[in-house]
Amino acid sequence: MTNQPMRHRPAGFANPWLQLVLSVLCVLASEFLLKRGAADVAEPESAWSWTGVNGLASPLVWWAILLIIASFVSWLYVLRYIPLTIAFPLSRVVDILVPLGCWIFLGEFISTLRWCGIALVVIGLALVAKPIAQIEERL
Amino acid sequence: MSFLAFFFIVASLLSFVTAQLVLKRAMESTRKSGFRNFQFFARVAGGITLMTISFFLTLGLLQRFDLSYLYPFQGLSVIFITVTAAVVLKEKLNWQLTIGALLITVGIVLVSLS
Q1: How many structural domains does chain B have?
Q2: Least packed by Cβ within 10 Å: which of A6, A11, A69, B85?
Q3: ipTM field
Q4: Which portions of chain B are predicted below pLDDT 70?
Q5: pLDDT reported for residue A139
């Protein structure tokens, strides 16, 4: 059952792998916007703020919501074709793109421990992606 | 970490994992019966509701904790979703996918601890 949905894979912009990449990029941008937006309007002393609703006062949060909706539409499309056991671990590449982006574009320091974590995620992603590559080769 | 913080972190994680399973079911059903059926709309609505709950809980948590502190918990979603997709959705889970998901989880935790 798992790999059946990949057989009739659409090409071009409708390619589910391309949609997975677009979904990841939207999530990446939204993570930065959400953190900045939430920090801008933080009210830690208010009990109501546990719900996060006061975050809507920040325009950055609204931009993040737009990106999240875009990534959600792409993600729904991805789920139609790719098994969750493969798509979801691959989508977590965003967790290393955030620190890597900070290192490349912002010149931030990455400690040895962080490099080890990034290496583990890359090896994990390679392991998850390997069966996909074999399936695609056979098609 | 206070009990309240732990409760909201777990609630956010659980609602996110459940939403993914519900949405996967919804999109799988469209391959057989198309988009115009009640089950599809009900499942997508349920998935969106759960994701919305998870989103606002995360927003509330982000106001109190650093993103790097919350990341290990987000990382746990990889292993939770991989296992529940295999159990609930009956997706095949071989050793490569299992070890891959475990490495990604440990890697995310290390990145956030550093």
Answers
A1: 1
A2: A11
A3: 0.77
A4: 1, 67-68, 71, 114
A5: 45
Secondary structure string (H, E, C) spanning chain B: CCHHHHHHHHHHHHHHHHHHHHHHHHHHHHHHHCCCCHHHHHHHHHHHHHHHHHHHHHHHHHCCCCHHHHHHHHHHHHHHHHHHHHHHCCCCCCHHHHHHHHHHHHHHHHHHHC
- Model pTM score: 0.76
Q: How far is B13 from chain A (nearest CA, A)?
A: 14
Residue A130 has pLDDT above 90, yes or no: no
Q: Nearest C-alpha of chain A: how many angstroms from B39?
A: 15
Domain enclosing residue A90, as ranges: 4-138
For chain B, say whether A4 makes contact (Cβ under 8 Å): no
**Distance from A54 to chain B by nearest Cα, in Å?**
8
Indicate the number of domains in chain A.
1
Helices (H) and strands (E) in chain A, counts: 5, 0
A15 shares contact with chain B (CB less than 8 Å): no
Which residues of chain B are within 8 Å of residue A43 when distances are taken between CB atoms?
63
CA of residue A122 relative to chain centroid, distance: 14
Look up the domain containing B83 and give its range: 3-113
Is the Cβ pair A125, B104 closer than 8 Å? yes
- Rounded CA gap, A82 and A16, in Å? 7
Contact with chain B for residue A1, Cβ under 8 A: yes
pLDDT in tens, A34-88: 878 877 877 777 777 776 777 788 899 899 999 999 999 999 999 888 888 888 8
